[in-house]
Specification:
There is one protein chain. By secondary structure, this protein is an all-alpha fold. It contains ten helices and no strands.
Length: 180
């Protein structure tokens, strides 16, 4: 079975107890990779990203009946993933790993990361951003997501998202200027 292209049919299949399990399995297959990378860009380790992705799908599975269908399924999943990630990043034990050395070491040891010095610096700069700004920066910079889509995911106005992105870009640029 493949995911239906019509969002209304997809939601109907997710709500129907007879098709829910199969449809949800297809949703997991279709959206695991983009959600993983959305999360991965915000956390330092693959293991954390993998755990957060699993938490995202568990919350989605248990919350299917509460999903009203007033957003696309992918938007709903991004919202869950983003909230899970921000909660994780706001934990006091998580914040202690946000220094540049930890970021550099984590990325250099990661097989996903090719170790380019400029990329290490960019990731270190991104790690200095507050979690919400980090999310906005990553969604715009790496995913090239429209502000309207980000607004639906984050529940924040387009104007506030633009301001947040602008501030994040300034902070990242400032991070690089400090080395000059």
């Amino acid at each position: 079975m493949a995911l239906p292209t019509d969002e209304d049919i997809l939601i109907q299949q997710l709500r129907d107890p007879k098709t829910r399990h199969t449809t949800f399995s297809e949703v997991v297959k279709a959206y695991s990779e983009p959600l993983y990378w959305h999360i991965r860009r915000m956390v330092l380790s693959h293991d954390d990203a993998d755990d957060l992705l699993q938490n995202t799908f568990m919350k989605a599975w248990t919350g299917i009946d509460g999903f009203l269908g007033n957003a696309k399924v992918i938007t709903w999943l991004y919202r869950i993933a983003t909230n899970e990630t921000i909660t994780f990043l706001n934990r006091p034990t998580t914040r202690s790993t946000d220094d540049m050395e930890a970021c550099s070491a984590a990325h250099e040891a990661d097989p996903w990361f090719d170790g380019d010095a400029l990329q290490v610096r960019l990731q270190a700069a991104i790690q200095t951003l507050p979690p919400k700004q980090r999310v906005v920066f990553n969604m715009k910079y790496f995913d090239d997501m429209r502000y309207e889509d980000m607004s639906a995911i984050l529940g924040t106005s387009v104007g506030a998202l633009k301001a947040s992105y602008h501030l994040a870009v300034k902070k990242v640029a400032s991070f690089f200027e400090d080395d000059i």
